[in-house]
């Protein structure tokens, strides 16, 4: 599968989001990862559908919207209308995961499921055939700039093996603690969509950071 770089605007300048997205477009990012936090599922609070809608008017990037919220079923239509291209919900945040994924797909959007570091893969095995992507959190969700959790690599490998065994086509995304070293470990384990926040935006040179990440894995897959 194609390796895709998905910068996370959680680490960008929130006072200048329009221009931050322009930087990503110029750097030829494959998609932009948009973290939505409600202060309940995680402690932090970030942005909501109105902000995503405003960003949509100013960007042609693929919007990868990650809902870190309780009761995500209450918010799906708002983010569909705001211009999300993919909506990711947490397995831990809903009682009716199958129905929620089906609801997202009924709007013609891609639907994905996320797993926190301590959540086992077997929790989502029954829906792997209907999701477009599985997001493996490689840090505990809620804040940027955290250190990569090594044992999450086993979950990536397990998902990659299940995908091959069952003949499925879902992508595997990773989010948290990504840098020049951990991106190699994740891709070798089976991931192909790489979310990077602090590494990209704290460097001072978005294009160079994305280029470095690509160069580290271009020969691996």
Automatic annotation (TrEMBL):
Top-rank lineage group of the source organism: Bacteria
Residues where substrate binds: 8, 66, 142-145, 175-177, 197-198
InterPro entries: Aldolase_TIM (IPR013785), Ribul_P_3_epim (IPR026019), Ribul_P_3_epim-like (IPR000056), RibuloseP-bd_barrel (IPR011060)
Cofactor comment text: Binds 1 divalent metal cation per subunit.
CDD domains recorded: RPE
GO biological process: pentose catabolic process; pentose-phosphate shunt
Cofactor: Mn(2+); Fe(2+); a divalent metal cation; Zn(2+)
Keywords: Carbohydrate metabolism, Cobalt, Isomerase, Manganese, Metal-binding, Zinc
Pathway given in the UniProt record: Carbohydrate degradation
NCBIfam families xref list: PRK05581.1-4, rpe
Protein name: Ribulose-phosphate 3-epimerase
Gene: rpe
